[in-house]
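explain this:

___
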Amino acid sequence: MSTRIAKPRSRMRKEPRQARSRATVEAIIEAGAHVLSDLGWAGFTTNKVAEAAGASIGSLYQYFPDKLSLVEAIRRRHFDQVLSVIAESAEGDKPLKRFAQQLVRGMIAAHSIHPTLHQVLLDEAPGDRGSRAAHASFQSRYLSHYAAAVAVYRKPRKSADIETVARVLSSAVEGVIHNAARRDMLDSPELQQQLVELICAYLAERHRSTQR
């Protein structure tokens, strides 16, 4: 299943076609994520991003007409990374605990490189109709991947149960991960273990409740 988010139109000035230009764009997006995570929207400038990427400001503007288009690229890449973690965790027929461990490790890894990025993207960085559409698409796919995992480990009485359990589970995981990122606790083994136990206990309990 593809986890790429549909893009109604690109806000980039042009798409990179050669390996060298793709590497340049990737370096700019990565540097942009670093600057945005560290300095927030108030400190985010194209000059700082170009400097962090080791690229000229002209190279940056060759692909991104303004910093809003760069933020959009950062936002979409972050969404793709999170979706990939959930989709890969739910793949295959694996025990519940292994699924939970893989999900927790992947989500922590996706948020450890730039711990505050997700919060800045949600609370500080401005967006337009395109970014709102991308976020709505992300939320839909995000929930569908969780629902697919829930369906494996819990047999509900009706389809609405799957969506409800998926919403509760995704909110719990997201809340713990984001709170840990804000408190610089993502590398805590105890927190990771507790989150794995929470996932297992919730899905196992929901499964048992349907057997009564």
